[in-house]
Design a protein that fits this description.
The protein is α+β, with helices and mostly antiparallel strands. It contains four helices and eight strands; from the N terminus they run ββαββββββααα. Strand 7 and strand 8 form a beta hairpin.
C-alpha cells in the first residue's frame, strides 16, 4: 500500500514536497519567462500542468551551464532533489535544487548566495544520458539471503543510475558520509539500493539535517 499519493501537495507548480520520495529527472519541453516573483517556468514531459519554477540561484546555474537563451533548453534534462535546509523567511521550509544537468562535459561549481553576507559553493554534475538498467535476475547462491544486490520476486525495483548519483550528491553537499549510508542499508554502491531504501535514505538525511539544526539552536 503506497501512501505517496496521499501526501502530494496541491499546487500549480512543482513543490519540494513532491520530491520527498526522492529526486526526479525531467526532460524540458518549453520554458516561459514573465515578470513577477517567480518569472521562470520550466515545463517538462509528464509535468501535469505543474512546471518547475526555479529560484534565482538555480536559474544562475542554468545560465552559467547552458547560456542565457532559454529556447535552447528544450530537450535537455535536469535532476531535481529536495533540500530540506532551504530557508524562507528565516525558517527551514525546504526547496528544490539541481544535482545533475545534461549537456555539460564536467562537474561545475559556483558560489551561490546563502544570505546577504554568506556564499556557499554549489556543485552540479553531468547527467548521464543512459536509460535505466533493469535489475539483474535473481540467482541462487549460498549467501543469497544476505546479498543486497539480489531482490526476491515482488520486491521494489532497483533505483536508476540518476537516482543513485543524486543521492550521492546530496550526501556530499550536506557533509554526510556516503559510506555510513551504504553500510546502514548493507550495500557497497547506491545503485544496489531499491526504491523503498531510496525513500528511507532521503528521510534519514532529512532527519540528520533537522538534528543538526536543533543542536545549533540549543
Amino acid at each position: 500500500m503506497d501512501m505517496t499519493p496521499t501526501i502530494v501537495p496541491k499546487s500549480d507548480q512543482l513543490n519540494s514536497d513532491d520530491l520527498i520520495a526522492g529526486p526526479i529527472t525531467i526532460k524540458i519541453t518549453r520554458v516561459t519567462i514573465k515578470t513577477g516573483e517567480q518569472p521562470v517556468s520550466i515545463y517538462y514531459e509528464g509535468d501535469n500542468g505543474k512546471p518547475y519554477k526555479c529560484c534565482k540561484s538555480m536559474a544562475r546555474i542554468m545560465v552559467s551551464a547552458w547560456g542565457a537563451d532559454a529556447s535552447k533548453y528544450v530537450g535537455r534534462s535536469l535532476t531535481l532533489y529536495r533540500d530540506a535546509s532551504v530557508k524562507w523567511g528565516g525558517m527551514e521550509v525546504g526547496g528544490i535544487r539541481i544535482s545533475h544537468m545534461s549537456d555539460i562535459d564536467s562537474a561545475m561549481t559556483m558560489a551561490l548566495t546563502v544570505t546577504r553576507a554568506n556564499k556557499k559553493p554549489f556543485t552540479v554534475k553531468p547527467l548521464a544520458s543512459v536509460a535505466p538498467k533493469a535489475a539483474p535476475p535473481v540467482t541462487a547462491s549460498p549467501d543469497a539471503a544476505s546479498s543486497p544486490a539480489q531482490e526476491p520476486a515482488g520486491a521494489a525495483t532497483y533505483i536508476t543510475p540518476d537516482e543513485a548519483l543524486a543521492l550521492e550528491a546530496r550526501c556530499t553537499e550536506n557533509s554526510i558520509k556516503t559510506g555510513t549510508v551504504k553500510k546502514f542499508f548493507g550495500v557497497t554502491m547506491f545503485s544496489q539500493m531499491n526504491s523503498q531504501q531510496l525513500v528511507e535514505a532521503h528521510a534519514m538525511i532529512d532527519s540528520t539535517l533537522a538534528e543538526r539544526k536543533a543542536k545549533e539552536a540549543a
